[in-house]
Amino acid sequence: HLTVHRVYEDICSRIYESAQRIDSITFLPSSGFHLKWKIQTRIANEKYLRTHKEVEWLISGFFREIFLKRPDNILEFAADYFTDPRLPNKIHIQLIKDKKAA
Questions:
Q1: Cα–Cα–Cα angle for 28, 31, 33, nearest 5°?
Q2: What are the CA-CA distances from residue 4 to residues 10, 23, 39, 60 (Å)?
Q3: Long-range CB contacts (< 8 A, 24+ apart) of 51-56?
Q4: pLDDT tens digits, residue range 7-27?
């Protein structure tokens, strides 16, 4: 049984592992700069996501609600979800639960 949280963690892990493997490859001078910049950006983004768990809870909560409610108008649903004044408190509570579980 895959949860949104597990899918999110799996995607982040795969990106991070792929970026680390690719970073160890020697690149041709003509294409190396762009590729190396792209990889460094991915690694930096992965580190950012790992240190900002609230992003994970925002995204996983959004996907969970989409899968549960299956709205016809996703854009309207997304606007409502991310502008809900209760959202910051929901995320804060989840972060506290995470810290207690760790």
A1: 100
A2: 10, 28, 25, 6
A3: 53/95, 53/98, 54/91, 54/95, 56/5, 56/8, 56/9
A4: 667 766 776 666 655 555 544
Q: pLDDT, tens digit, for every residue of 79-92?
A: 999 999 999 999 99
Which of 18, 99, 15, 22 minimizes the C-alpha distance to 57?
99
